Amino acid sequence: MKLLVLHGVNLNMFGQRDPAQYGTATLADIDAALQQLAGELGLGLECFQTNHEGAMCERIHQAHREGLDGVLINAGAWTHTSIAIRDALGILKCPIVEVHMSNIHAREPFRHHSYIADIARGQICGFGADSYLLGLRALAGQAQTASKK
Question: Is 115 marked active-site?
Answer without folding.
Answer: no
